[in-house]
């Protein structure tokens, strides 16, 4: 026969107090009870091996200790590193990370937001551009749910924010290619670029106002296909707006028998791990991706703790990492 599940009723019976008292004590509200009562309840819990039901507990505490995290696609190493940063901080604070891939699909993103809200998450981290301001207003702001929108989109109006300096990043990439003597350059980016990527481009265009724009999805395949367009131009250097695009360019340019950096200098953006494992190692603009995740998680937890505190905006710096995919124009 199956063992009977131990309930709060059993703990109350064994310790000789009411169910309400057991519930209060096991949920950490033990200040109003005598040490003897607390001890009796904890002893009964231990003797019976009682595990409080998570959902029942949530009803009492009005907290799920869960944060919903929405990213466009976790297979992109930028987002997996970001989530590791988020998760590390949340784990240390006894929170669970609930991850959703929004796939740049507005409906999927809205569905996730609503479902996460029904499941009672304590806050949201949204690193995805598909979210509409309307969904933010309807699902989050009106219900007073704490959230931070980062990376691809900046929330309109009132919320905390964590950014990286995309404008400086784009300009640093431009300055580097200019110092190497390149005059004709191309930028590979998505046609419907997100706000952060547009800012990156604006920084680059400060140095190269006439940069040739080649469009491709923000993926390795996007870069591979963009290589076919690059070789039709007179560019000698390419700024790939993220590292994944740059890796795709490696393959596409090799297929066209072009060499990096002899025929084309290539600079990426993000500084994901793979940059060091490709040949030639990729010169790139490093975003502090892990730190971005950590900072965002900390800021959100602070907001949950202190809902009335002043809004905060943090901008993290980026830096040029020189490797071997860029070289002087001969
Ligand atoms: O690789 C993903 C890219 O898109 C990153 O540059 C990040 O900033 C995002 O917006």
Descriptive overview:
By secondary structure, the chain is α/β, with parallel strands linked by helices. The chain folds into three domains: 54 residues, lambda repressor-like DNA-binding domains (434 Repressor (Amino-terminal Domain), Orthogonal Bundle); 127 residues, Response regulator (Rossmann fold, 3-Layer(aba) Sandwich), CATH 3.40.50.2300; 122 residues, Response regulator (Rossmann fold), CATH 3.40.50. 44% of the residues lie in helices and 16% in strands. The chain contains twelve helices and twelve strands. Strand 3, helix 7 and strand 4 form a beta-alpha-beta unit. Helix 8 packs parallel to helix 9 and helix 10 crosses helix 11. It is elongated. The mean pLDDT is 92. The site of alpha-D-ribofuranose has 11 residues, from strand 9. Alpha-D-ribofuranose binds next to strand 9.
List keywords for this structure.
330 residues; 434 Repressor (Amino-terminal Domain); Rossmann fold; 3 domains; six-stranded mixed sheet; four-stranded parallel sheet; 12 strands; binds alpha-D-ribofuranose; transcription regulation; repressor; Peripla_BP_I; transcription; DNA-binding
Please outline what is shown here.
It comes from Candidatus Enterococcus murrayae. The chain has 12 helices and 12 strands.
């Amino acid at each position: 026969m199956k063992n009977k599940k131990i309930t709060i009723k059993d703990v109350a019976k064994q310790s000789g107090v009411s169910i309400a008292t057991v519930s209060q004590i096991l949920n950490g509200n033990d200040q109003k009870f005598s040490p003897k009562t607390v001890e009796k309840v904890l002893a009964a819990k231990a003797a019976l091996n009682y595990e409080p039901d998570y959902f029942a507990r949530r009803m009492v505490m009005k907290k799920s200790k869960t944060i919903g995290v929405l990213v466009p696609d976790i297979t992109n190493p930028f987002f997996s590193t970001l989530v590791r940063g988020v998760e590390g901080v949340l784990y240390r604070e006894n929170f669970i990370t609930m991850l959703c891939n929004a796939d740049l699909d507005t409906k999927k993103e809205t569905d996730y937001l609503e479902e996460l809200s029904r499941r009672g998450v304590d806050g949201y981290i949204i690193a995805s551009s598909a979210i509409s301001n309307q969904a933010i207003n309807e699902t989050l702001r009106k219900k007073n749910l704490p959230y931070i929108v980062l990376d691809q989109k900046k929330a309109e109006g009132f919320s905390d924010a964590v950014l990286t300096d995309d404008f400086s990043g784009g300009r640093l990439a431009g300055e580097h290619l200019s110092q190497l003597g390149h005059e004709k350059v191309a930028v590979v980016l998505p046609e419907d670029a997100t706000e952060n990527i547009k800012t990156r481009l604006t920084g680059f265009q400060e140095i190269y106002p006439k940069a040739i724009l080649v469009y491709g999805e923000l993926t390795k395949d996007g870069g591979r296909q963009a290589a076919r367009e690059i070789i039709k131009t007179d560019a000698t250097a390419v700024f790939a707006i993220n590292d994944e695009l740059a890796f795709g360019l490696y393959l596409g340019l090799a297929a066209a028998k072009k060499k990096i950096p002899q025929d084309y200098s290539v600079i990426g953006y993000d500084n994901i791990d793979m940059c060091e494992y490709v040949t030639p190692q990729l010169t790139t603009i490093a975003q502090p991706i892990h730190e971005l995740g950590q900072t965002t998680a900390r800021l959100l937890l602070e907001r949950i703790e202190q809902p009335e505190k002043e809004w905060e905006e943090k901008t993290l710096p980026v830096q040029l990492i020189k490797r071997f995919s860029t070289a002087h124009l001969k």
